[in-house]
Amino acid sequence: MDEHAEILNRAIQEVMKTITNVRFRIVLIKRDEETIIPSRDVKLQPGDQIVVIARPDGIGRILELTGKDKTRFKNIMILGGGKIGRMCASVLEKKFNVKLIESDLKKAYELSDYLSETLILQGDGRDIQLLMDESIGEMDAFIAVTEDSETNIISCLMAREMGVVKTIAHVENAEYNQLTRVIGINALVNKKMITAANITRLVRKTNIVALTHVHGMDAEVLEYVVPPESRITQKDVRNLKFPRGAILGGYVRGDDVGIVVGDTRIQSQDRVVVFSLPHCIQQVEAFFR
Predict the structure, then answer these.
(1) Are 60 and 112 found together in one domain?
(2) Does some domain include residue 195?
(3) DSSP letters along 168-218, please?
(4) Residues forming beta bridges with residue 212, ordered by sequence position
(5) Interatomic CA distance for residues 53 and 70, integer angstroms
(6) Per-residue confidence of the chain (289 residues) as pLDDT tens digits?
(7) In this predicted model, what pLDDT tens digit does every residue of 210-241 receive, in sequence order?
(8) The domain containing residue 43 runs over which residues?
(9) Which residues contact 138 (CB under 8 A, 6 or more apart)?
(10) Residue 214: which of 67, 49, 76 has the closest Cα?
(11) Is 250 helix (H, G, I), strand (E, B) or coil?
(12) Distance from C-alpha of 114 to C-alpha of 107, rounded to nearest angstrom
């Protein structure tokens, strides 16, 4: 939260009543080292890190309310031409100007055959001169996905120092999660955490169809398909007595995408997104059986 944010020092209930032209919900707050599922009377403070769920057409207004500028991405640089880097480039090159740096010459040639719209560069991504020669200061995002966690972290820090707004690092060690937030890397990708989440989803005997962790927060995001006659469908949301350590965010019903509010009634076969502190997940699951 920027110190000049429009919604600063206001209770969430007050914010929701006065901002009526955008449907959104504040679902998580990181305050100092504590992760909070906010109640309606919680006031937003300077330095709070918040997670907001909203429809795409409301994102611009949400950024204004929180004192953030909407960055329009155009130029992206990727470090590492392994499986992750190649997949990222193949998706991003359809909409953005993409440069990919790969240290291995043979792999760089292979990538140039596979990625028709991406500029492939052979070199060391830790080489400051190389980054400067390739105009890293003009990049809107820098994605480091080599097989070396330290290289990814260091290169992201270099990119931020050179003016890149958005940096993403792939790391193998989950202990780097907190570090990346403190030192200013925007996002972290960890294959082991993703795999663990998928395993957890498979062994749970519920209707969870997706599960992930929130970067830098002690919280999980769960997506459920609502079974018939489950507890979550019996009352409006405000009367459900949902666990205090969890919050319903949004739902998909056919072609309709909605933000959950007090008078929302969840229906069978809805896809529902829940944000939960770890100790409340079992209580949440009871509503979806």
Answers:
(1) no
(2) no
(3) EEE-S-TTHHHHHHHHT--EEE-HHHHHHHHHHHHHSSS-EEEEEEPTTSS
(4) 221
(5) 16
(6) 777 888 889 998 888 888 877 888 899 999 988 999 998 899 999 888 888 888 877 888 888 888 776 667 899 999 999 998 999 999 999 999 999 999 999 999 999 999 999 999 999 988 889 999 999 989 999 999 998 888 888 898 899 889 898 888 887 765 555 555 555 555 555 555 554 455 444 444 456 565 666 767 888 888 899 999 899 999 999 999 999 999 999 999 988 888 998 899 999 999 999 999 989 988 999 999 8
(7) 566 676 788 888 889 999 989 999 999 999 99
(8) 12-65
(9) 75
(10) 49
(11) strand
(12) 11
Amino acid letter, residue 148: D
Among the candidates 46, 65, 84, a domain finishes at 65
Measure the CA–CA gap between 51 and 275, rounded to whole angstroms: 10
Are the C-beta atoms of residues 159 and 134 closer than 8 Å to each other? Answer: no
Residue 258 tokens read as: 């909605």
The total number of structural domains that make up the chain: 3
Task: Judge contact between 86 and 26, C-beta under 8 A.
Answer: no
Residue 141 gets which letter from DSSP? E
User: Same domain, yes or no, for 95 and 173?
Assistant: yes
| Token pair for 158 | 């270099």
86, amino acid identity? R
pTM score of the predicted model = 0.63
Query: Are the C-beta atoms of 145 and 187 separated by less than 8 Å?
Result: no
Whether 132 and 163 share a structural domain = yes
